[in-house]
Design a protein that fits this description.
alpha+beta; Ribosomal Protein L30, Chain: A; six-stranded mixed β-sheet; 12 strands; 27% helix; flat
């Protein structure tokens, strides 16, 4: 989790402020070689704040040392080590044993509660913006008059915009090894594994499961900042053509990276 492979590409993030951000802005700008004005919006966001991406090992080490030298909490990691939520174990069915959380089905595995390193709830958001252009012919008195009745209509285009958004509660469950990284999705789970504790609604069941895991994984790092301060979404894809364009945005990638950085910061005592 520290930059030690020269051929890897690293990300460096700030995880704790030593002083108020406004007091550190000029020093950070000098470290990064950017204007303080351009840096302001980036660093004023919720922690962890990514300061640099795509750095080589030496550059990542130098920036990390500079940040920590000023008393800030900071971490660096290889971008290749950040596991996407799509690559994590994603249970449909589960069982709550006395000593372990058991994933049933094709991705079956057993994660002892005392091997859970971190439990990080978050909200995944997917939004879709659609722009549709409709064209129709409309009678035109002026055209009819000018053309002697040969041309009596003109084309009129109208753009219609719509926006939809879906939110889902998730819980990142980090085991000690990369093969035991699990993501629990509110809408994916079947909650029969709760037994007598099963509730009336999906949201209540998800909350109940998260509460049980937090109570049993007594040594785990638990942090709610990804729920309190949701990450902004990035462009996930654009589809369509001239008359219909659909842009999809998701914050899943941002959540995945933030969760990974928080776990490293916890392990390295940088929070």
């Amino acid at each position: 989790m520290c930059p030690d492979h020269e051929n890897e590409i690293f990300v460096v993030a700030l995880t704790k402020w030593a002083n108020p951000p406004a007091e550190e802005l000029q020093a950070l700008a000098q470290m990064l070689g950017v204007a303080a004005y351009d840096l302001r919006l980036r660093v004023m966001g919720p922690l962890p704040v990514v300061l640099a991406r795509g750095l080589a090992g030496d550059a990542a080490r130098e920036l990390l040392a500079s940040l920590r030298g000023r008393g800030h909490g900071a971490v660096a990691c290889e971008l290749s080590s950040v596991m996407s939520s799509e690559s994590m174990i994603e249970p449909r069915d589960f069982r709550l044993d006395k000593s372990a959380f058991v994933v049933l089905g094709p991705q079956a595995c057993e994660l002892p509660y005392d091997e859970i390193v971190a439990l990080l709830p978050a909200t995944h958001t997917v939004s879709e913006s659609q722009s549709t252009t409709k064209t129709k012919k409309k009678f035109s008195i002026s055209r009819a008059a000018l053309s002697g009745g040969l041309v009596s209509s003109r084309k009129v285009s109208k753009e219609i915009r719509s926006h939809t958004e879906e939110r889902e509660q998730v819980l990142y469950v980090f085991g000690r090894s990369a093969s035991r990284r699990i993501i629990l999705r509110e809408t994916r789970l079947r909650y029969t594994g709760l037994g007598d504790l099963m509730c009336a609604t999906r949201g209540e069941n998800f909350t109940a499961l998260a509460t049980i895991l937090k109570a049993r994984a007594t040594g785990a790092f638990i942090d709610n900042r990804l729920v309190k301060n949701p990450r902004k979404g990035g462009l996930a894809g654009v589809s369509g053509g001239v008359t219909r364009m659909v842009a999809t945005r998701s914050n899943a990638t941002e959540n995945d990276l933030a969760a990974h950085l928080l776990v490293i910061a916890y392990i390295q005592n940088q929070i």
